[in-house]
């Protein structure tokens, strides 16, 4: 079993920044061994969508809507995944979820953290 706990969400004005964290614990040696870790988001009335992904090899992928504004990273010593979000827009308002894809050993989700961008 793997547990994911997100934090760092909140209310921010347009143009502002937030950093989300996802603490990973459980039956893993290191977050760096997880094949793919991702951030997803789900806005009211919309489907959950992938925002950013980070592979164990260090490759990153971003949704077009967040490229150049969001950065995904990890701290292996702290077993924590991050999402640095800059130049936030009202359209970024959503619940943000951390996801770990462990291949044969299954997929895991966090409980989500609310991000609201509003003046």
Poorly predicted runs? none
Could you estimate the helical fraction of the residues in percent? Answer: under 10%
Give the amount of beta strand, in percent.
over 45%
Round the mean pLDDT to the nearest integer and report it.
Answer: 95
Series of secondary-structure elements, N-terminal to C-terminal: EEEEEEEEEEE
Principal-axis shape equals: globular
Largest sheet: 7 strands, mixed
Estimated structural class: mainly beta
Distance between the termini: 40 Å
What would you call the quaternary organization? single chain
Number of strands: 11
Word description of this protein:
0% of the residues lie in helices and 53% in strands. The termini are far apart. By secondary structure, the protein is mostly beta strands.
Topology summary:
Blueprint: E1 2-7, E2 10-12, E3 18-26, E4 36-42, E5 49-55, E6 60-62, E7 70-75, E8 80-85, E9 94-101, E10 107-109, E11 113-117
Parallel strand pairs: 2-11
Antiparallel strand pairs: 1-3, 3-8, 4-5, 4-9, 5-6, 7-8, 9-10, 9-11
Brief summary:
The protein has 119 residues and is an all-beta fold. It has no helices and eleven strands.
Keywords:
53% strand; 7-stranded mixed beta sheet; 4-stranded antiparallel beta sheet; mainly beta; 0% helix
